[in-house]
Design goal:
The structure holds two protein chains of two kinds. Helices cover 63% and strands 2% of the residues of chain A. Chain A is mainly α. Chain A folds into two domains: 191 residues, no CATH class; 31 residues, no CATH class. By secondary structure, chain B is an alpha+beta fold. Chain B folds into two domains: 30 residues; 152 residues, no CATH class. Helices cover 39% and strands 21% of the residues of chain B. Chain B is built from five helices and seven strands. The longest helix of chain B is centred in the N-terminal third of the chain and has 28 residues. At the A-B interface, helix 4 of A face helix 1 of B.
Chain lengths: 227, 191
């Protein structure tokens, strides 16, 4: 089924966090605990699926000139809805996510999927795309959150997992630890997927004509012939 | 002409619809917590005073705490079993309004205990003040308390938690506010 493909591509192959490097801000900010990562990830998934549905339905109605403001209004509406709901029913998650909940509005994963996918595809593929991307995002957040919580606080989902005599490394729940863990996870994922680093040629460089050249320029010239 | 108006029209309709739906959601989910003892507040009161009957005091003017000085005192709770008072105080730690604690007072104006209602401080640093051993240092204090980085020299000096100096200071300022609020309250009650 091609729907299945739309769903699974977001999990690892085109994972918004680990492969496309989108939505880094919430990934670093809220992952001090695994449960926060899960809450943030599921909230984002909900917004992503809903906005994908609505935008996909309205793609013929929304004029091209106002498409971005229209998307943002729709996304902001769902985000406010989610935050009101969390405040009412899951106040603990609400207070620990804080302002990052409202900032889902400007999460580039959601606008990115609206612009790249939902506005060009039918409703059902858009739902699967949103689900896959959202769960891929959730997966990363829980992964980063778990590593940080276990190393930094000696707990996992609030359950103490480290023996008492080991002092947890507080560094890992501070921002610096977030960068470290995220970087390591991205490196591991790239290694597992055998993804090669992109070669940077000179053909996109505006100064290429005036460049006196370097080994990489010669290499790129030989290959592209347009430096 | 239509091509010019249509974008504006569509956007306006979308905005109106989204707003209308949000108003409905807001009204469905909004709970007014300003005049009641919330579960969090009650749990904190129980942590300080033990299980008892707690009543919220809403008439600030009658209690003499309506001046700006006591704005950080969010709620005043009376333990009707013992006749003592507890103050919910919100102060700035490292982050604005990061410290939301209940400070319980004994009948003779000493700090009876502290419990956290909500802590918005940096995880791993500021949150270290949420520690029974640190709260116990405030017990029995009845005068303005100060925070120092070195071991305390006087009774009213408390050593800050390492890595959480701002949060420690914020907690001390919450305690000071509660002590002075209690002093004020006492006079009013006596008069």
């Amino acid at each position: 089924m091609s729907y299945m493909k739309e769903f699974t591509k977001g999990l690892i192959k085109e994972n918004p966090n680990m492969v496309m490097l989108l939505g880094m801000c919430p990934t670093l900010a809220v992952t001090t605990m695994a449960v926060n990562g899960l809450g943030m990830g599921l909230s984002t998934t909900f917004v992503l699926v809903c906005s994908n549905i609505v935008i996909s339905l309205l793609k013929k109605v929304i004029p091209n000139t106002v498409r971005l403001p229209a998307y943002i209004v729709i996304i902001a509406g769902f985000v406010t809805f989610v935050s009101l709901m969390l405040q009412a029913f899951l106040p603990d998650i609400y207070s620990s996510l804080g302002m990052f909940l409202s900032l889902i509005t400007v999460n580039c994963i959601i606008l990115g999927r609206a612009e790249m996918f939902a506005s060009k595809n039918k409703v059902i593929p858009s739902i699967f795309d949103g689900l896959g991307m959202g769960l891929g995002f959730t997966l990363t957040l829980v992964l980063v959150g778990s590593v940080r919580e276990i190393l930094g606080a000696g707990q996992w989902f609030g359950i103490t997992v480290c023996p008492d005599f080991l002092e947890p490394m507080t560094l890992f729940i501070l921002p610096a630890g977030g960068f470290f863990v995220l970087g390591s996870i991205i490196a591991i994922v790239n290694r597992l997927m055998k993804k090669k680093p992109r070669e940077i040629g000179c053909h996109n460089c505006p100064n290429a004509e005036h460049c006196i050249g370097c080994p990489s320029a010669e290499k790129s010239e030989g290959k592209e012939g347009n430096a | 002409m239509i091509a010019k108006i249509k974008p504006v029209l569509v956007l306006s309709v979308i905005c109106t619809l989204v707003c209308a739906l949000l108003i409905v959601t807001y009204n469905l989910t909004y709970v007014d917590t300003s005049g009641v003892i919330t579960d969090d507040l009650r749990a904190a009161c129980v942590a300080v005073d033990g299980e008892a009957e707690f009543v919220l005091i809403t008439d600030r003017a009658a209690e003499g705490l309506d001046s700006e000085e006591y704005d950080s005192v969010v709620k005043i709770v009376k333990n009707t079993d013992k006749g003592t008072f507890l103050f919910e105080v919100v102060t700035d730690g490292y982050s604005a309004d990061g410290i939301d604690v209940v400070v319980g007072m004994t009948a003779d104006g000493k700090v009876n205990g502290i419990a956290v209602v909500a802590l918005g401080e940096t995880p791993g640093l500021g949150t270290k003040i949420n520690d029974a051993a640190f709260f116990d240092k405030f017990k029995g204090i009845s005068d303005t308390v100060t925070i120092s980085k070195n071991p305390p020299k006087t009774d009213n000096e408390i050593q800050a938690v390492t890595g959480a100096t701002y949060s420690s200071k914020g907690l001390a300022s919450a305690v000071n506010t509660a002590i002075s609020a209690y002093g004020k309250l006492n006079k009013e009650v006596q008069a």
